[in-house]
Write a structure and sequence with these properties.
Layout lengths: L2 H6 L12 H12 L1 H4 L2 H10 L4 H30 L6 H5 L1 H20 L15
Helix pairs in contact: 2-4, 2-5, 2-7, 4-5, 5-7
Length: about 130
């Protein structure tokens, strides 16, 4: 990452290339809040702090995209499980627990990385919100 790009991610207030402590907390909150609020947690962070910090906005958008992707996968698996119930759809239902565990683990890990000041990218994510 070039210095120019890195500086753009820093605080508007201090002009520092590193996120402030407040930005790190809000970035972590964007990821971890999704455990309880799904897509609404990161969306709330975007609405509250997105205009004040590009870094927080990017963290929240990454979390929002991940939660939306996982929500879509869950809905598809539920619908497919219902439609295929007679033909082995139960297997799809059994995959929901590992998917939920993966979402929780990745969200917590992303929150930790954001709190460390790392602009975290989820390993699989459909980036609908840019």
């Amino acid at each position: 990452m070039s210095m120019e790009t890195h500086q753009q991610l820093g605080s508007f207030i201090t002009g520092s290339p590193e996120p402030t402590t407040d930005e790190k907390i809000w970035g972590a909150l964007a990821h971890v809040s999704a455990l309880v609020l799904s897509v609404f947690g990161p969306l709330l962070v975007i609405l509250l702090k997105g205009k004040q910090s590009i870094w927080v906005e990017r963290q929240a958008k990454e979390a929002l995209n991940f939660q939306a992707t996982m929500l879509a996968m869950t809905v598809v698996m539920l619908v497919a499980g219902l439609l295929l119930f007679c033909f082995g759809g139960v297997l799809l239902w059994k995959l929901l627990a590992p998917l939920g565990l993966a979402v929780a683990v990745l969200s917590i890990y992303a929150g930790i990385k954001a709190h460390e000041g790392v602009l975290y990218r989820y390993p699989f994510n459909v980036r609908l919100v840019k």
